[in-house]
Every structure is written in C-alpha cells, then in structure tokens.
Specification:
This protein is α/β, with parallel strands linked by helices. The chain is about 45% helix and about 20% strand. It contains 26 helices and 29 strands. A hairpin with a 3-residue loop joins strand 25 and strand 26. The chain starts with 9 loop residues before the first strand and ends in an 8-residue tail after the last helix. Pfam families: Glyco_transf_20, Trehalose_PPase.
C-alpha cells in the first residue's frame, strides 16, 4: 500500500493498547484486546511499521515495579509501549472525565455529564503522561497518529515538545453541535488541544461542521475549505468515514468453524426469522428503545409470534460507571417483560446474551440474521452495520439503521429510521421482514461494493495521504515567512540607508483588534518605538489606517509621524493640517445610513462607526453565524444601492465599509513614495485593504504581511509581535536577535 510514508514509523496513540495484561496469581501474560480501536486498526498495525502507545489495562499499583517491567518487556516484543495508570487515575480519568463528562456530552446526553475538577485534573495529568511516553519513543521522521476522545489535549502537548513533528488526530465518536459543546467548562482547552494536530479527522461532514463552528465561535478562528489558520499554523479538518477489514468478515463466512456454528444456530432457532441486535451495553446505543419497538411490533403483528426471534447481544462495558449499571438493570427488566408478555413454553421472543462473543460466533450470527436492527440514539460510525453487510454473500438480509449513526451517511440503501420514533422502527421491522429477495440483493450489492472499496486500509491510506498533503501545504506557507537571513538582510539595508520610508498599518499590524474600535489604544511601548523610529535621521514614518482622522490625531498627533486616515481619504504630514487627497461627496450617507441601521437592529452586537467620508458596520461582537448571513444580505443590498454611484464596498476584518471609490492606501502612500528616491521602503499590513499598498510599492521595496494566506507582499510574519520585534531590530546596532 502506497501511503507516501514508507520507511517512516507510525506511532499509534490510543487509550488502550491492542494487548491487555492478564494476571493469574503471580503470573503475568498479555492477550489481544477485544473490540474498539484494537480491532479496527489491527490490520494497519500489523501490516505497517507501527509502534502502539497506550494503557495495557492493568492497575500499576497492583503490578508493582517488577510487574510493570515484565509487562513492558512482553509488550516491547509486540511493538507496544505501555503507559501505566494507577487505580485513582483510572477512576478519575477514564471512568470520570472520559466516560462521565466527554462521552455523554459528545453523544448529546449532556444532562448525564458531570463537571468535576478532580476528573479534569486527572485528564490533564494522564494526557501529560501519554505525552512524555510519546516524546521518549519519538524519532525524527515518525508520524504520530493520536486517536479518540481520551486524548483530546495530547496534540497540543506534543506540539510544544515536538514543534516540527507530523501529528494527526482522529475522533471516533461524534463531535456535538456548538450549542452542546459550549456547555463544557473546559471547551477552550479542548479545542486548543486538538488544534495542535496538523490534520484532524472525523467520520462525517456533520462532525467537521460542528467542530469548525465551535472553533470559530469560541476561539475566533475562521476556516476556508476545512483549513484553519490559527495565527501561526495551518490545521486541516476533514472527513474520513472509517471502514472495516472487509476481506476478513467477507472471507470468514467460508471458514469451516463459522459454517458449523451457523448451522448449529439455525437448528437452534428452528427456522424462525432472526433479528440481530449487537452492541456494547451503552445508553447511546438505544437498546431499551429497540426492545420497546420489538414489543410493539409483536403486539401489532401477532402473526409473527413464534415465527421470529430477537437476539440481543450486549457486550459488558464501563461497569464502574453508575449509568451503565442502571442501564443493565433496565435491559434485564425489559427482556423479562417481553418474554413474559409474548413468550410460550416453546418460544422465547428474545434471546439475551450479556457477554463478549468469539469472532466465529459473531460472524455466524451475522450470517443467519435476516435483519440487523441497529438503532443507536447517537453513534460516531457503528462498524457492526458494515460488518453485517460484508458477510451477506448471497445478498439476503436487511439492515435497519439509525439516521443518528455515522454509518447512515454511507449506507443509504439500508432502511434508515429515527430511533426516537417507535412507530417508525416498528414499520421498519415489518418492511425488513417482508422485503422481496431481489430488493434485498440489490441494496446489499451496492453497499458491499462501497465497503469493499473503502476498507480499513483505504481509510488509513486516505488519512495518511491527506496528512502528508497538509504538511506540504504548511511548508509552502512557511516558505513565504520572513526567514532569519531575510530579516538580517532587511535590517542591514535599513541601517545602511540614507533616506527611509516606513508605511505601517495599525490595527492587526501593530496592535491587536479590540471588541470596539476605541478600545484599541496604542500602548506606551509602541508609542516609544514609533517615536524613536521617527527621530532617526532620514527616516519618515507614516501610519496608514482605516481609522478616522480625529482618532489618529489623538493617538499619534504628538509624534513626528505622517498620518493617513480612512484608508486614503485624509493625509496629514507632521506638524501640518489634515488635507483631503481628492474631492469627495458625503450626501450618499443619508441613503445608506438607514440601511445599516436596519442591520444593526437585526444583528445584536453590531454597530455603526461614522467617519468623514465612510460608514462602517462592525460585527465583531455579533453571533458569528448570524453575522455571516447578515453580511451577505447587506453586501448584496449595498451593491444594488451603489450600482451607479462612485462608491466602494469594502469587507475588512469583521467590518463592512462603504466609502467613496478610488481612494485606497496605495494611492495615498504615493504622496510619500513620489518624494523619492528612497534608499529603503518598508510597507507592513495585515488585511486585503493593505494589498493596494503592497501593489503601489516600488521595485526593491520590502513588503510584509501579518498572517498567512495569499498576498502581494514579498514575505509574511506570523503575528504583530514579530512586526514590533523587526522594527526594534532596525534600531539596534547589532541588528537584534532572532525572533
């Protein structure tokens, strides 16, 4: 398989290792783990150059130092690195934060989530322990692939320790909508933890959309086609619907042991139609709702009594968590009630197994089942649905699948149901049991072809190729970053010049954005820096801003600097009065202002800023989704209103500005540029309105854009901190130090 990563190790990081410790008295051994990631990733792990890092499933306190050394040695032979946890950590981290906070919240059972600081501290501590283990094992060139909700903080922890490492993260459970995720007290920390990865993968587009929405609303980072610029790094978010080892399940049907088990089960159930329910015993799987639907089905269609059996396999899970123990009692009671209500001496309508099944028995159950009844209330993917389809060599069998499972996005030929609608589930069972055979075959063949093509190795290859492409994209962006050599050359050129011109934007370039424009007041260090630059012999400093002239006068009027206001409408030389750069009208304001006021009323958090010859609608503090919709409406309306007027509509950083056309930063800067020749010209800005400035600069000028993305500027820097450091370096005799 060509992943583009041959010869490089992949470090698979997950909560559990594919092997678990077994203690028999004083004897220790390791055996394959059952279910979960261990099963899903087994093919990739076995066929590639992988090392797996995770918890081996035993209490370190019970093992002791000698036991841990023995276990580590056994696991090393299997390319596994253990992260040992004690009983307290297991209780607070795994049973606590992972499965009593994150699991219910991400599955929309937020009323079942708990918010315990002790659990959160344990979660941080265990993620740090995983980080230390990975850093110890890491070799340059390794690919780090972190998995699932147990380790949401790990990517950022690893990024701090291994800044150049290739890190991917895949989330195997749903990512909830912003309205659910925002409940989490530690929501910022979780998002920042994930953004340490280069590539973040989810099963479905809905989960991607929910994640990017939360990032935008909570952290303020926008995305374009799944690319998030975090200020200094690009992170890619994408969809990778996890596949199964299709050949393993499809081929197992011909295994003699499976055939023998299937024949035994058919004889046991006496020719009755079999409906199969197979899940971990988890409240997200909808097992009680499934049982109630089957109960109603038998009431509504009594002709199926003694002719059908529901096999419920519930794999024990998280028995230390109270909700799971409560669920077990509920399922036990419902099975008893249905059996008592509908059963006879010769027929039990429900066959209930609370156990882990051997692989051969599971495949045999898939094979004999007429219907797979998969009605999760919320499910990241549900691979059982795919496994069932893969075993249907003759094409006979019907999958009833919850629309709340990630698999529904791929398996559209199944009978898709709303698991909260009992009537719909009853109808689906009837349709499944009466579906013509040719229709069953048609549906299954389509699904099988899809699953055969996008199997587990294809899924892993797809993820790895996208991770490689993301690193290439990052390198392309980093290639435009101001290098140490370029910075030193720029500083030397500045210091050697006789006449220098510095054209500097303000907001986002020298000072951070503020919720309201008037709050972004320059600090004393910046004023001192600008004053010192302007005092240098032969140096002219010009502040080019979208702000109004009164604000610029108030903030910078005491400095010996030139000022350009309203993106080129007004200009002021040191010690002189403001002058317009050309004839302008403002009668248009009376027509445009009422339109903007309507949108202020319709968009809470927005407001209007009026300048001499422009009107600005600010929406930085508005709800992001509402503002996104409103700005599109408003721009469209303004384009219609200004179609035959000499006006520009400019979209800046969360602002929409209407101003007289033909005036921009480049045109205004020409007043100073035309006074050349200059030995050194520097232009710095952060948004698209500064592109006019970059375009106007002469050949040989230095142009710097703050932030990543396409630009006419020659180089980029990551942040305004680097801009200030660059300007400070120009003033130092030694040229300064590396940023």
């Amino acid at each position: 398989m060509d992943t583009g990563t041959e010869g490089r190790r992949t470090l698979i990081i997950s909560n559990r290792l594919p092997y678990s410790v077994r203690q028999d008295g004083e004897n220790l051994s390791v055996e394959p783990s059952v279910g979960g990631l261990a099963t899903g990733l087994a093919s990739y792990y076995q066929d590639h150059n992988c090392v797996w890092v995770g918890w081996p499933g035993a209490d370190s306190g019970t093992l002791g130092e000698k036991g841990m050394e023995e276990v580590a040695a056994m696991l090393e032979e299997r390319a596994c690195i253990p992260v040992f946890l004690d009983a307290d950590e297991i209780g607070a981290y795994y049973d606590g934060f992972c499965n009593s906070t994150i699991w219910p919240l991400f599955h929309y059972f937020h009323t079942s989530s708990t918010w315990e600081n002790v659990s959160w501290e344990a979660y941080q501590q265990v993620n740090r322990a995983f980080c230390e283990a990975v850093v110890r094992e890491y070799r340059p060139g390794d690919i780090i692939w972190v998995h699932d909700y147990h380790l949401l903080l790990l990517p950022a922890l690893l990024r701090r320790e291994l800044p150049r490492a290739t890190i991917g993260f895949f989330n195997h459970i749903p990512f909830p909508s912003y309205e659910i995720f925002r409940i989490l007290p530690w929501r910022r920390e979780i998002l920042e933890g994930l953004l340490g990865a280069d590539l973040i993968g989810f099963h479905t587009y809905d989960y991607v959309r929910h994640f990017t929405d939360s990032v935008r609303r909570i952290l303020g980072y926008q995305h374009t086609s799944g690319e998030i610029l975090t200020g200094n790094r690009l992170v890619k978010v994408d969809t990778f619907p996890m596949g199964i080892d299709y050949t393993r399940y499809s081929g197992a049907v011909d295994d003699p042991g499976v055939r023998e088990e299937a024949a035994r089960l058919r004889e046991k159930y006496g020719g009755r139609r079999v409906i199969l329910s197979f899940d971990r015993l988890d409240y997200t799987k909808g097992i009680p709702q499934r049982l109630r639907a089957f109960d109603l089905f038998l009431q509504r269609y009594p002709e199926y009594r003694d002719g059908v059996v529901l096999i419920v396999v519930a794999v024990p899970s998280r028995t230390a968590v109270r909700e799971y123990r409560t669920l077990k009692r509920q399922v036990d009671r419902l099975v008893g009630e249905i059996t008592g209500k509908h059963g006879t001496i010769d027929w039990a309508p429900v066959r209930y197994l609370y156990d882990v099944l051997p692989f051969e028995t599971l495949v045999a159950l898939y094979q004999i089942a007429d219907v797979a009844f998969v009605t999760s209330l919320r499910d990241g993917m549900n691979l059982m649905a795919k496994e069932f389809v893969a075993t249907k060599h003759d094409g006979l069998g019907v999958l009833v699948l919850s629309e709340m499972a990630g698999a529904a996005a791929e398996l559209g030929e199944a009978i898709i149901v709303n698991p909260f609608n009992t009537e719909e589930m009853v109808g689906a069972l009837k349709d499944a049991l009466t579906m013509p055979e040719n229709e069953q075959v048609r549906r299954n063949r389509w699904m099988q072809e899809r699953l055969r093509r996008y199997h587990i190795l294809h899924w892993a290859r797809d993820f790895m190729q996208r991770l490689k492409a993301t690193k290439t994209r990052q390198r392309e962006l980093e290639a435009s970053l101001l290098s140490t050599e370029q910075r030193e050359r720029l500083v030397r050129k500045y210091q050697a010049a006789g006449r220098r011109l510095l054209l500097l934007d303000y907001d986002g370039t020298l000072a951070p954005f503020a919720s309201r424009p008037e709050h972004a007041v320059p600090d004393s260090a910046l004023l001192s820096l600008l004053g010192t630059l302007a005092a240098e012999e032969g140096t002219e400093v010009v502040m080019i801003s979208g702000r109004d002239r009164r604000t610029l006068t108030e903030w910078f009027g005491g400095l010996d600097v030139g000022l350009i206001a309203e993106r080129g409408v007004w200009a002021c030389r040191p010690g002189s009065e403001w002058q317009m750069t050309g004839p302008l009208q403002q009668e248009w304001k009376e027509e445009i202002r009422p339109v903007l006021e309507i949108y202020v009323d319709r968009t809470p958090g927005s407001f209007i800023e009026e300048k001499d010859f422009s009107l600005v609608w600010h929406y930085r503090m508005a709800d992001p989704d509402l503002a996104s919709a409103r700005v599109k409406e408003l721009r469209s309306m303004l384009f219609d209103l200004t179609a035959h007027r000499d006006l520009d509509i400019l979209k800046g950083s969360r602002v929409l500005e209407v101003k007289s056309a033909g005036y921009n930063k480049g045109r205004a800067a020409a007043r100073w540029l035309d006074e050349g020749p200059w030995d050194f010209v520097l232009g710095v800005g952060d948004d698209w309105t500064d592109e006019y400035l970059f375009e106007a600069l002469p050949e040989g000028a230095c142009s710097v854009k703050v932030g990543m993305g396409l630009s006419k500027a020659r180089v980029h820097v990551r942040s305004l901190r680097e801009v200030r450091a660059l300007l400070e370096d120009c003033l130092r005799p030694d040229g300064g130090q590396e940023i």
